[in-house]
Write a structure and sequence with these properties.
Distance between the termini: 22 Å
Largest sheet: 2 strands, antiparallel
Strand order of the largest sheet: 1-2
Number of strands: 2
Helix content: 55-70%
Order of helices and strands: HHEEHH
Strand content: 5-15%
Length: 93
């Protein structure tokens, strides 16, 4: 994962249904998830923060399991293609 900066605390999120962990991770990294966090974060000078209660209020989109599996596999295939292209570019430099 890319280096990141954080302030005083970092939240770890564990869904009640462990089988949803991967789905939740992908969803929070999507434009949808990022938009939610940016719009609910409290902004101050050069610092944005979000409370654990706002994290818990994230409206989770939960399609049926076969559709979630299909979407997850598609996203992983696309990410693998991006990684392969990055490796080719790095080797070419």
């Amino acid at each position: 994962m890319e280096p990141c900066l954080h302030q005083n605390h970092v939240f770890a999120v564990r869904p009640r249904i462990s089988a949803l962990s991967e789905w939740l991770a992908l969803m929070t990294q999507s434009k949808y998830g990022k938009h939610y966090f940016w719009t609910t974060a409290k902004q101050s000078t050069n610092l944005a923060s979000i409370s654990s209660s706002n994290i818990k209020k994230l409206p989770v989109i939960l399609p049926p399991e076969p559709e979630r599996r299909e979407i997850t596999e598609y996203v992983h295939r696309a990410l693998n293609l991006f990684r392969l292209q990055d490796e080719k570019i790095i080797l070419a430099i």
